[in-house]
């Protein structure tokens, strides 16, 4: 690695722990289907739920709800710079201080939009995570077949080597225009990744020799506060626990009110045994729990899921709440979970998500779900306020 690269990363290590700011702002009328304001027949908190820092604890984000960067990278549909800025502004006004993005989201678009907003905020007042594993290079046009609408004109290639990680971090800092990162996730090492399939194990071996020890060194050097994996399936997480010492992992599409058995039984207990926390990506199953006609990041809605959602919606209405609110709080209730990071492409979606974390859900709602076997009997649920 060159001295210039190391000096750049050393400069990015300056700064201290995040400081929480008071919550302000309230939910506005929804702008899209599924973006409903939570039913207000229940007790509402004055602030978002927080993680309390403890001496010797692995690094965790400050707020238990963050903002995920897929929609701001034009995932599922194209969005404007103005809507992205408004979503970020609404997150900040709501008290959110954890922001997650990736070079992959919109092929650099999400990072640029996050950076445009966050670089004007005091750096010590928020936590920022991004990802490594893909390097971007300028191209006449972006590759086809991705989930991104109107992405930036970049091609990508996989690189999980030590040099690739350093290069990726430097590139992200340039796109973000921000002095340092807090958390770095090794991204998309998964058989579900259509670029990899069964070859994910080959890429994992590259990461085991390169990305994992390099991120461990960066943590030791103080350049980052924590590292882990950001994946849609648990295999790479469980392998990493056998060979390394991650701080935090991003489990996308794996722990939600609609689907959680494997994570509840296997993945989360494995993390808890090592003191590693989980951030839950896609806690709404990419909007399905909020009424969208899509499920996770594919084009197929699992058999029986429509009936399950309808039954949950009926019970939610009986208790005066909405399913989106229940889904977000369910994902955050597990003690191993340190944050949930639903995406938002505009201010109304972000405000509604934040408001959902402040509603007191009646205990009877969860009792009814368990009685009808719509959620696991052993699943932790939030206590009413």
Features:
two-stranded antiparallel sheet; 385 residues; 10 strands; eight-stranded parallel beta sheet; alpha/beta; single chain; disordered N terminus
Detail the topology: elements first, then pairings.
Elements: H1 3-11, E1 67-68, H2 81-93, E2 98-100, H3 109-118, E3 127-132, E4 134-138, E5 154-158, H4 162-176, E6 183-187, H5 200-209, H6 211-221, E7 226-231, H7 235-243, E8 248-252, H8 261-273, E9 277-281, H9 305-318, H10 323-333, E10 337-341, H11 347-356, H12 363-371
Parallel strand pairs: 1-2, 2-3, 3-6, 6-7, 7-8, 8-9, 9-10
Antiparallel strand pairs: 4-5
Helix pairs in contact: 2-3, 2-11, 4-6
Task: Compose a concise summary of this entry.
The chain has helices spanning 3-11, 81-93, 109-118, 162-176, 200-209, 211-221, 235-243, 261-273, 305-318, 323-333, 347-356, 363-371, and strands at residues 67-68, 98-100, 127-132, 134-138, 154-158, 183-187, 226-231, 248-252, 277-281, 337-341. The longest helix has 15 residues, at 162-176.
Alpha-carbon distance between the two ends: 52 Å
* Rg on CA atoms, Å: 20 Å
The geometry reads as globular
Overall number of strands: 10
Instruction: Write out the strand line-up for the largest beta sheet, numbering strands in chain order.
Output: 1-2-3-6-7-8-9-10
What structural class should be given to the helix and strand makeup?
Answer: alpha/beta
Series of secondary-structure elements, N-terminal to C-terminal: HEHEHEEEHEHHEHEHEHHEHH
What ranges have pLDDT less than 50 throughout 5 or more consecutive residues? 1-36
Strand residues, percent: 5-15%
- In DSSP terms (H or I, runs of 4 or more residues), the helix count works out at 12
- Helicity range: 25-40%
**Average pLDDT across residues?**
90
Sketch the major β-sheet.
Answer: 8 strands, parallel
Oligomer: single chain
């Amino acid at each position: 690695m060159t001295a210039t690269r190391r000096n750049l990363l050393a400069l990015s290590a300056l700064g201290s722990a995040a400081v929480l700011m008071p919550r302000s702002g309230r939910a506005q009328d929804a702008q899209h289907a599924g973006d409903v304001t939570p039913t207000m027949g229940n007790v509402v908190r004055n602030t978002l739920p927080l993680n309390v820092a403890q001496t010797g604890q692995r690094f965790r984000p400050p707020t238990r709800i963050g903002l995920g960067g897929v929609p701001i990278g034009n995932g599922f549909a194209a969005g404007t710079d103005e809507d992205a800025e408004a979503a970020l502004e609404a997150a900040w006004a709501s008290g959110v201080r954890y922001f997650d993005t990736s070079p992959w989201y919109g092929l650099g678009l999400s990072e640029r939009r996050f950076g445009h907003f966050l670089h004007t905020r005091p750096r010590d007042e928020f936590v920022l995570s991004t990802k490594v594993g893909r390097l971007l290079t300028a191209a006449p046009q972006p590759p086809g077949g991705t989930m991104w609408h109107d992405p930036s004109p970049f091609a990508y290639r996989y690189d999980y080597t030590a040099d690739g990680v350093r290069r990726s971090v430097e590139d992200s800092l340039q796109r973000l225009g921000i002095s340092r990162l807090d958390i770095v996730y090794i991204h998309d090492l998964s058989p579900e990744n259509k670029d990899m399939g069964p070859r994910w194990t080959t890429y994992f071996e590259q990461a085991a020799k390169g990305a994992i020890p390099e991120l461990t060194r960066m943590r030791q050097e103080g350049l980052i506060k924590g590292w882990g994996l950001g994946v849609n399936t648990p295999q790479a997480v469980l392998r990493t626990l056998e060979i390394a010492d991650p701080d935090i992992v991003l489990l996308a599409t794996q722990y939600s009110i609609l689907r959680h058995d494997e994570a509840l039984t296997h993945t989360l207990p494995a993390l808890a045994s090592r003191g590693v926390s989980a951030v839950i990506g896609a806690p709404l199953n990419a909007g399905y729990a909020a009424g969208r006609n899509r499920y996770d990041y594919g084009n197929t809605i699992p058999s029986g899921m429509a009936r399950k959602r309808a039954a949950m919606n009926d019970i939610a209405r009986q208790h005066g709440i909405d399913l989106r609110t229940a889904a977000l709080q369910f994902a955050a209730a597990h003690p191993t979970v340190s944050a949930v990071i639903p995406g938002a492409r505009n201010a109304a979606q972000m405000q509604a998500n934040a408001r959902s974390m402040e509603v007191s859900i009646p205990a009877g709602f969860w009792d009814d779900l368990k009685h009808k076997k719509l959620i696991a009997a052993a699943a932790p649920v939030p206590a009413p306020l």
